[in-house]
Amino acid sequence: PRMPTCLSCARVSSRRWLNLQEYQSKKLMQESGVTVQRFYVADNPPDALQAAKRLNAKEIVLKAQILAGGRGKGVFSSGLKGGVHLTKDPSVVGELASKMLGYSLTTKQTPKEGVEVKTVMVAEALDITRETYFAILMDRACNGPVMVGSPQGGMDIEEVADKSPELIFKEVIDIFEGVRDDQALRMAANLGFKGPLKRQAADQIMRLYDLFLKVDATQVEVNPLGETPEGQVVCFDAKISFDDNAEFRQKAVFALDDMSESDPTETEAAKWDLKYIGLDGNIACFVNGAGLAMATCDIIDLHGGKPANFLDLGGGVKEKQVYEAFKLLTADPKVEAILVNIFGGIVNCAIIANGITKACRELELKVPLVVRLEGGYCTGGATPTALHPYLPSV
User: Percent helix, strand and coil across the chain, each rounded to 5?
Assistant: First the structure.
């Protein structure tokens, strides 16, 4: 069957709080029996050199490990161009690593100052005769996981769907049965694998589903799932998204989280159970509920303003969280005004008001503050009296 609906899900998922480096994802795949390239990880040039020698491969690929795309075309602060290098001479790996480790790599997806590279992956380079795309993801329309595949891999899957929708295939997975053998074989055939490779690809597909369940993933995307001249089916690159609600039973996986590259403000917000995403504008948004938060950002933009952030307080917010949220917003040098937009269906507006009052008093607010509180404990939509000294225009 062809796939008309869940392509956007394959690319656009909920915000990922857990960030894994490429080598960490591949390690999880190895543990589930998925075929990946042989590799080692190094955090200093001598270890990188030794890893290259231990591989004893015809060709070696050296990859800088950062949580951003576009590494191949990136530039290091050392002057080295490219975060991915191929070589047939193991002796040069140490020298290349010395120009990567400890230096910042700037790509189209990093901040202007780049991201410091602390580890490199030294892997066996394999030729690819054919590239395909494969993913397992949660699909609301199907009320569970689905497999999505295309014989055209190594490129943006949305582009394939737009230009050649007939090359996108979908298999709905029964969560109680799992991936059936006939489904895996059918998907392998749709991906263009033939002969013994068809069976091999089907086995890889079933193991990827085992991984999907084992780590409580919401998405496992392999692009490309490739075929080598030696007759191997290999997962060359993978992106894994995890269900944050499963952290309590995935402690080992979540312990791998590399927070060093995360936005410090987002990391601090997460400590207080605040959903924060930094944006490029100058109007800070302080809102409860993701829907209202997005609508608030849209309205600001519609009227010519630019939101500085997305901030969802959630329903069970406490006064301390309100105060800490204000600390985060006021610490952003871009912020020139703060808009509070609260609809108190579940949220107690008095808690919000008291938190804001404390923040205004203790943080010595120096930017304009506009507050809209409506709902529980906010009679008739009027602003609580405690806020009046800080809102002379309300």
Answer: 40, 25, 35
